[in-house]
Design a protein that fits this description.
1387 residues; alpha+beta; 33 helices; elongated; disordered C terminus
């Protein structure tokens, strides 16, 4: 296991090496190595089996052992500042080349996340090395000393003794007790190179070895031979020393001297042979097995005995307890005195010996023996003894408050626990406790323990990572970095971030945030390359996360560092990513833009080929939903036509194309194909392809965009790429204001046939940087994409050869017109690219019509001659008018066709026809026109469709409301009350005439009155004059548009209506007495006026909508339940409130009424007016003016309005009255009239009629009905009138209100009851209509039952049912005073 191996390498016996200058020269001159470096690779023994028995009766075996060799002069811990400088140099060396660092995100995708970055392991090793050789950790103190002498020494024994006596001891061995326990071993180093001739008395190395053994001991001496190899031939052993040689620290220390010999050209160990290496290995192994291990074993035994003597036994335990209490008391006194500002005693009761670090207790007494015992036991791999000793020592340190020494013990205890197989939680607890005690406390603000605290967390992170506890490793490293300086904190942050990648699932968000913080720390300590590497690892991870500030910071730092390093391409890339920064202020946005443009300018100047098209984020382009508009079989005359939903046009196309149901007036001779032959992916050469792209400026500064165009490719069949000039692309310049979003339409024209591919758009930002974005279409939602989506989603088109195109213009139509105006204009037809024929037009609105009798202007001679020949053969007049004009089609549309022989040629000029426009609704009026034409040249397009929309703003002019009520003095006529409100702002309107267009109806004008204001309540309550005061008809001037049909009834007005005022007009209408022909499709003839044709088109539209609703109901379509039937009167009044055609939804709800009140249906009216200042005529149409109320049977009580009588001569005045009834229902009815007290009280109380407006006579009710009180009419046929005569006796003068009578009419399920006053002028609704169900229906409900006796309340169960129009109520049970009491049931 890696952590176990590292632990054994870190805590292993330290051997101090002392070499003579001659021995150093032998090694360095030939091999470039010091004696210490020469020994290091061979200090690891892994094939051992040495039995050891330290404490107890049981022994164990050491199977592997590592020795650490250090020079005597380098065994000390460097100063903290020197160590920090060395560690910074380590990071600086790593920052010089970061190219070998792995790409972490790529490794994450492959599942190969590294455990650490390359420089982290080396930094951790150097960091651990800088903390070695502290006085409180004896496992780094030397346990043996190797005295290396040259074999050329004349007296090796004496030289060895002198060397030992004069050597410089490390600080840890300056104590005499430590020197006494040090093991000495002597090595005689022999140089096997050929030597010059020597004297015969000089001994050989073997002889000197024997002499040394005789003087120093047999086991304490060994011979090593080197330099027997050929230096010129590489031995292949140089790699053994590369990993063992450490870089020296300034001034020396940490196990390395201040300087190292340079590596020779041949490499390290060039003069060493295999036999030299084997001899060296055997010598060191013999030293370890025969000398060092027994020495350490004996040392553990001795220390254990010493500890037992000082701590075991009752007496020693009491002394230890008292000493602990006295130490704790002294520590408390010192702490209290320090906090209170008192003088501290010069000589405390017990003070630990000062150390070099100033934070650890000195090694003296029993605690020193315990620590040496634990460390030495760990060195000989007796981990149980080490762990038990460390636990005892921890208790002592904790009781004395020596927290740093206690933390050091906890750290080593964690390693010992791991080696003996303790639980993971126990091991990590020791490391965490060590970190906590090493960290600065509130009472100890010094930072000397921070380095050791970080070491504890590094050990914990390494241990936790080994066992897969990445969260624990991450938490430990994060806790350690919080109290470290910038460089080390950055390294810890990087390693903590890597732990997050190993988690499942990886925590990418925190990983990226840690790396950003690490980059900040690297930049703070001037490690730019490492900071840039940290940013690059995560910069692209923030894309699309909407963390603007982090992303902006990363790209800013990376861009500036790249530019400083000369990487302009990288600087442009990072400055480019900073441009979309909407959260920054406008000043910073402008700075970022200039920064990017400057870098782009420099890159273009140095290497223009590297500055290609960039993926510029400015402006923001919607590349996922580009709208493509093009013409093929279907063409569009303007942009408004494209804005109309495609489903609407397809409905019209189904009426116009051959094969669609467009009525019986089709001219099908020119049909050559059907709807299935349309190709949506086809465009025509020479015609524009428009791409609508959404551009937006997310910044607070304006953007200047030039050379904006479409990227496209045209591939011809015989070539792989489009030839030069095959595409003509339009370039546009746009300036987007701050925060502006705009749709830009770009056009291109393919000039030759082939395959056209739209790739994207390109533009230039501020005339410097060229941007390019390719389209990425958004996938259509649902299982199937609609036809409209498929058109917009395809960016590849087939370009066919050019074809003729019909061009249509509507001349004379103003952009703004008054509501109801009759506007004259012209329809101009022309052709581009050839001749077209078979022209047909379909209009979806009844507001536009063509004059079929007019002659066209500008028809060329060929078409005129062909038309004359055709008409001559047909024996008709020689005219080139419209063969079919304004023909109603299915779907509430109107069609006009020119015939198959009519042709429009682009070379002969345009043709014009007169047309009429009549807007009926205020607001935005859209004229939808669909044109069908057939090109006479080319076979790719047999026909084409042209969609056209013309927009007109319609201003309000008049508001007309008609109210039709029965005449009070005649059952066969009606009174019409017409209220006209002027909506003109300043101009007065001249009301010319009112026309009744329903055949058989007669219109008589009455007097009119004008009210001063629309808000005057008197205007709506104005009473009509009597028919005796009828006004005289006044004839006025007429326009050619207002020539009326002889079947119409006309009332001339010639009344001016000022602006913002109201006029009330009264008329009498006489309905037809006999049925008239059906007027749904009348023939107006060729000379009918425009107003009549528009009125007819409105009727046809209403009839078509009503017929469609009727057919849908007949077909069994589901209808909403419990929906009341619409009142025709109320619906018509609401529809005519604006004085124009009702909307489609309301008109569709009006179904044909099988029981109409009049033979010819409800009357249709037209009000004609004139604006003299604009020379404009107009009219408003009122369709189906139903009377107010719908009494199936009308009644009239006639009699004298005023009677003069002499009551002195005759006390009673007899007045003869006549009651007339007329049946307007479809079937026969029965009636009953009741006069006097027998009439229903409810009827008399419910209906009341106001008397005359002014009267000097008092109101009086003293009258008596004479004769029969009841009159029966057994049968009143449909349309018949019945008269009943009665008398009333009056006994006093005054105003008598005769309302105490009632008339009941019954017809099956219909029951009508009510009264009318005598000669009632304008009564309210006089009938009460009650609809009852004929079938038997029972229902149960709970109601309250009131008892009149004591007004108490009881509950009962009530049954109510309706049987043949009779309501029966029964009470099952009543819980009250008595069940037999009378109860009143109130509903």
């Amino acid at each position: 296991m890696e952590f176990r191996t590292q632990t054994l390498e870190a805590i292993s016996p330290v051997v101090m090496v002392v070499a003579s200058p001659e021995a150093e020269a032998i090694c360095q001159s030939q091999n470039g190595l010091t004696v210490t470096d020469l020994l290091r690779p061979y200090g690891f023994f892994h094939h051992l089996s040495v039995p050891v028995r330290t404490v107890g009766e049981h022994s164990y075996r050491i199977k592997e052992l590592r020795l650490r060799f250090y020079e005597a002069s380098a065994i000390y811990q460097p100063a903290p500042k020197v160590a920090e400088d060395h560690l910074c140099a380590v990071l600086s060396n790593a920052a010089t080349d970061v190219s070998h660092a792995p790409d972490l995100l790529a490794a994450l995708k492959k599942g190969e996340v590294p455990d650490a970055l390359p420089w982290f392991k080396h930094y951790r090793e150097e960091y651990m090395r800088m903390l070695r050789f502290s006085e409180h950790e004896t496992f780094d103190h030397p346990v043996a000393c190797l005295l290396v002498l040259s074999a050329s020494e004349p007296n090796v024994v004496q030289a060895a003794e002198e060397m030992f006596q004069t050597m410089t001891l490390p600080p840890a061995l300056r104590d005499s007790s430590s020197q006494a326990t040090l093991l000495r071993h002597h090595v005689l180093l022999a140089d096997d190179r050929p030597q010059p001739a020597t004297s015969p008395d000089e001994k050989l190395p073997e002889g000197k070895l024997a002499e040394m053994k005789e003087g120093l001991g047999d086991a304490a001496c060994s011979l090593v031979r080197i330099n027997s190899g050929d230096k010129d031939k590489r031995s292949g052993l140089a790699g053994l020393w590369h990993s063992q040689i450490r870089s020296p620290v300034e001034g020396g220390g940490a196990g390395e001297p201040a300087s190292k010999p340079a590596m020779p050209e041949q490499g390290y160990g060039a003069a060493l042979s295999v036999s030299d290496v084997d001899g060296l290995k055997r010598s060191l192994e013999d030293f370890a097995v025969r000398a060092l291990i027994p020495h350490l074993e004996m040392r553990v035994r001795n220390l254990s005995q010493q500890v037992a003597l000082t701590r075991k036994g009752f007496k020693n335990q009491i002394k230890t307890l008292l000493w602990r209490n006295r130490s704790a008391t002294s520590a408390a006194i010192l702490s209290s005195a320090t906090s209170n500002g008192a003088d501290v005693p010069a000589t405390p009761l017990r003070t630990p010996r000062a150390t070099t670090t100033g934070v650890f207790s000195g090694l003296s007494g029993s605690q020193a023996q315990l620590r040496q015992l634990a460390d030495t036991a760990f060195l000989v791999q007796d981990f149980q003894t080490a762990a038990s000793t460390l636990r005892t020592l921890a208790v002592d340190y904790r009781s004395e408050g020596l927290w740093h020494s206690y933390a050091s013990v906890q750290e080593l205890l964690g390693l010992a626990s791991f080696m003996i197989g303790a639980s993971m939680q126990e091991v990590m607890t020791h490391f965490k406790e060590a970190f906590h005690r090493f960290s600065p406390q509130e009472r100890d603000p010094s930072r000397d323990g921070i380095r050791y605290a970080t070491r504890s967390m590094l050990l914990l992170a390494q241990y936790a990572s080994l066992h897969g506890q990445w969260s624990e490793a991450h938490q430990g490293l994060m806790r350690a970095h919080l109290q470290e300086e910038d460089g080390r904190a950055a390294v810890l942050l990087e390693q903590a971030a890597l732990c997050l990648l190993h988690k499942q699932p990886p925590n990418l968000r925190r990983f990226s945030f840690h790396f950003v913080l690490a980059g900040l720390r690297y930049n703070s300590c001037n490690l730019r390359n490492l900071g840039r590497h940290a940013y690059r690892q995560v910069v692209w991870l923030y894309e699309g996360r909407h963390w603007a500030f982090i992303e902006e910071h990363l790209h800013d730092v990376l861009g500036k560092q790249s530019k400083a390093a000369g990487d302009l391409h990288g600087a442009v890339r990072h400055f480019l990513a900073m441009l979309p920064c909407p959260r920054s202020s406008p000043s910073w946005q402008s700075f970022y833009l200039r920064q990017f443009l400057d870098a782009a300018t420099q890159l273009a100047a140095n290497s223009p080929e590297e500055l290609g098209p960039l993926d510029l984020p400015l402006p923001a382009v919607n590349i996922r939903n580009p709208q493509v508009f093009y013409d093929n079989q279907t063409c569009h005359a303007n942009g408004a036509a494209r804005a109309v939903p495609a489903a609407y046009w397809r409905r019209l196309e189904s009426l116009l194309l051959p094969g669609g149901d467009a009525g019986q007036n089709w001219l099908d001779s020119g049909s050559k194909t059907n709807l299935a032959s349309l190709h949506n992916e086809v465009c025509v050469a020479g015609e524009a392809v428009t791409v609508a792209v959404q551009l937006s400026n997310p910044l607070g500064i304006p953007l200047v965009i030039s050379r904006l165009s479409i990227l496209a490719q045209l591939q011809q069949p015989e070539e792989q790429e489009g030839a030069d000039g095959s595409i003509l692309a339009e370039e546009v310049e746009v300036t987007l204001a701050a925060g502006e979003a705009r749709e830009v339409r770009l056009q291109l024209r393919p000039l030759v046939p082939g395959t056209l591919t739209l790739r994207g758009i390109t533009w230039t930002l501020s005339d410097i940087a060229r941007g390019e974005r390719l389209f990425k279409l958004k996938a259509a939602s649902g299982r199937r994409a609609t036809r409209d989506q498929s058109r917009q989603a395809k960016l590849v088109f087939k370009v066919i050869p050019s074809a003729p195109l019909l061009q249509v213009e509507l001349l004379g139509l103003p952009r703004t017109v008054a509501e109801g105006a009759l506007v004259e204009g012209q329809l101009r037809l022309s052709s581009r690219g050839g001749s077209v024929s078979g022209i047909r037009m379909l209009s979806a609105e009844p507001d536009l019509l063509l004059d079929p009798s007019a002659q066209p202007d500008g028809v060329h001679e060929a078409s005129a001659a062909a038309a004359r020949d055709q008409t001559a053969q047909a024996e008709s007049t020689a005219s080139i008018g419209l063969p079919q004009a304004n023909v109603p089609c299915k779907g509430q549309a109107f069609m006009s066709s020119w015939g198959p022989d009519f042709c429009v040629d682009g070379q002969s000029g345009p043709c014009s026809w007169p047309m009429r426009f009549h807007p009926r609704q205020p607001g935005r009026c859209l004229l939808h026109l669909l044109w069908y034409f057939e090109p006479r040249a080319g076979e790719d397009l047999r026909f084409r469709m042209l969609r056209m929309v013309h927009e007109v703003e319609v201003l309000p002019s008049l508001c007309c409301q008609a109210q039709l009520i029965p005449a009070p003095d005649d059952l066969q006529s009606y009174l019409l009350r017409l209220q006209v409100d002027s909506r003109q702002e300043a101009e007065s309107t001249q009301l010319e005439e009112l026309v009744c267009r329903s055949p058989g109806w007669k219109l008589e004008p009455l007097a009119s009155a004008a009210s001063p204001s629309l808000s005057d309540p008197a205007a709506s309550a104005h009473s009509p004059p009597s028919s005796a005061n009828s006004s005289t008809e006044v004839h006025g001037a007429h326009s050619s548009l207002l020539q009326q049909s002889p079947d119409c009834s006309i009332a001339q007005l010639q009344q001016p209506l000022p602006a913002k005022l109201q006029a009330l007009l009264y008329f009498r209408l006489h309905p037809p007495l006999h049925p008239t022909p059906d007027q749904s499709k009348p023939d107006l003839g060729q000379q009918a006026d425009a107003a009549a044709r528009f009125h007819l088109q409105g009727q046809q539209m209403r009839h078509a909508k009503a017929q469609a609703v009727f057919e849908k109901q007949q077909a069994g379509q589901p209808k909403s339940k419990h929906k009341p039937q619409q009142d025709p009167v109320g619906a018509e009044q609401k529809q005519h409130a604006s004085g124009s055609t009702p909307p489609a939804a309301a008109a569709a709800a009006i179904a044909p009424d099988p029981s109409q009140r009049w033979a010819g249906g409800a009357p249709d009216l037209s009000l004609h007016w004139h604006l003299s200042s604009q020379h404009l005529h107009g009219c408003h149409h009122l369709y189906k003016c139903w009377p107010k109320g719908e009494a199936g049977v009308q009644m009239l009580l006639k009699g004298p309005a005023q009677v003069q009588h002499d009551f002195a001569a005759q006390p009673l005045c007899r007045v003869r009255l006549q009651l007339s009834l007329r049946n307007f229902l479809s079937g026969d009815v029965t009636a009953e009239a009741t006069f006097g007290a027998a009439a229903s009280d409810a009827a008399r109380a419910s209906w009341s009629t106001p008397g005359p407006a002014s009267s000097d006579l008092p109101a009086c009710h003293s009258h008596v009905w004479s004769g029969r009180k009841r009159a029966h009419i057994d049968t009143l046929p449909s349309g018949a009138i019945n008269h009943k005569t009665t008398e009333v006796l009056l006994s006093s003068e005054g105003m008598h209100n005769l309302q105490d009578y009632q008339v009941k009419v019954k017809d099956g399920l219909l029951l009508i009851s009510g009264t009318r006053g005598l000669n009632d002028a304008f009564p309210d609704f006089t009938g009460k209509r009650q609809q009852l169900r004929q079938e038997r229906q029972e229902f149960n409900f709970h109601r309250e039952i009131r008892l009149p006796a004591d007004a108490s309340t009881a509950s009962g169960h009530v049954h109510a049912k309706v049987v043949e129009g009779v309501l029966e109520v029964t009470v099952d049970k009543v819980w009250g005073p008595q069940a037999s009491d009378r109860v009143d049931v109130q509903f």
